[in-house]
Design goal:
By secondary structure, this protein is an all-beta fold. It has helices at residues 152-157, 167-170, and strands at residues 2-4, 11-14, 21-24, 38-45, 48-55, 61-63, 83-84, 91-93, 98-103, 109-114, 120-125, 130-132, 137-138, 144-151, 176-182, 188-194, 200-203, 208-212, 220-224, 231-234, 242-249, 252-258, 266-270, 277-281, 288-291, 301-307, 314-323, 331-334, 339-341, 353-354, 360-367, 372-379. Strands 1-2-32-31-30 form a five-stranded antiparallel β-sheet, with no helix packed on it. Strands 3, 4, 5, 6 and 7 form a five-stranded mixed β-sheet that branches. Strands 12, 13, 14, 15 and 16 form a five-stranded antiparallel β-sheet that branches.
Amino acid sequence: RTTSDKATGRRIVQLTQGEGFCYPLYYFIPSVTKEGRYLIHHRAEAGEVQLHRLDLSNGESVQITDGTCEDTHWRQWCVNSGSGVLDHRSVLNVSRGEVIYFDGPIGNEVRTVDVETLNDRLLFTLPDDRIAIGQNCTTTDGDWFVYIHADRELYLSMFDENRRTSMVKRSLAKGTQLAAYHIASGEHRSLLSINSPIHHVLAIDETRLLFCHPATENGMLLADINGGWYTHLRTQDVQGGTVCHFVSTKRGVAYEVLGPDLAGSVAGLYDPSSHDRFEFPLPTRLGYTHTGCDPEGKHLFFESMTDWSNGPDCVHDMHYLLRHHERGDDEWLALTGNRRTYGVGQKSHFHPRFTPDGQWIIYTDGDQRTESNHIHLLDATDLPGTAGLRDLV
C-alpha cells in the first residue's frame, strides 16, 4: 500500500497491515537481515505477541515463533500484549542470520531460530529467580549475545497495580546484571552488576557496549565485553537536561538532551573513545524528541511527539537536519507532517531507522482503517546527507 505524506508529499510504503500492532525490534538494533531480504518484527494481536519474518522481495509473511510465556509485558515501558515471546527483548543476530528470543512458561528460556530454515534451538535457561528486563543486542561480529536480567521477585515488586514504578522505587533496585553469552562456545560472562534497572544495551562494535539508564537520571554509559567496569559518557548536564535516546553510528553516538519542560533541548554526536563531542540546538517545535538511527552516521534526523490531545493516541512528525552551521542557523527539512499513531507505550512511537541500503527510513505509523500501528517505509532517496558535521571518529 503506497501513499504520500499530505504535508510533504514524500512517498510512504506500508509493509504490514491488519488488526494487530506490528513493530520492528526497536530501533537501536537491526531488524533487517544482512542481504536485505527479510524484515523481522513483532506482531501483537488477540492477546498474543510473536515474531514474524516479512520477505521484502515478495511480501510473504511467516510467523517464526510459537512462544507460550504467560507474562510477556515489558514493564514499565509498554502495554501488556498477553502471552507469547517476551515483548521488545528479542534480537536479530545479523552476522549469523538468527533471531534470539525469550520463551518458556516464565520467559527464562533463551532460544534462537534460523531466519532462513526456521530451525529452532535452545541456547540456555535463566535461573527461575531471574527475569530478562531490558532490550538486548549482539556484538557486531555476532559472537556474543548481550542481555539484561534482574531478581524476579524484587523487580516485579517495584511496580504498582498499574505496573508503573517511580524513580524512588527504581533507586531501590539491586543486583541487575549485564551479561553476555558466547554463541559458539556457550561461555557465560557477567559483565557488571548495578543497583538500578537497565533499559537497553546496544553494541558499538565487536567489544564496546552502550547501555542506560542510571536509577535517578537518564544517560548513556559505556562498558565492554570483557566486563568489570563501566563509565558515564553523557548523563545529566548543569541545566538539568538529560539524554533519553541515543544510537550508535560510524560517526559517533548520536543523541538528544531534553531540557526542562522541553525548552533548550540539544542534540549531538559523541566519540566514546576520546570523549570529544559537539552539540547543536533542537528547534523548539520538535517537542518530545527521539533521535533517529542511521548506522552509517550520514543523516541526522529526529522523531517528535507534539500532541497528546487525543488521549492515549499521539501525533508525531519527523524532521531532518540538512545542514549544521557553527553560527547556529541550522537548516531543517520536514520529512512528514503530523501523523497519528494509536495506543500507548513503545508500540506507538515511530522509532525511525534507515534501512541498510540507505534509501528508506523504516518506522512505525498508524493505520486509521484498523486503528492500529504498522511498519512503514518513508522514501529517503533524495536526502543528501547532513552537511556541516564535524568528524569525531
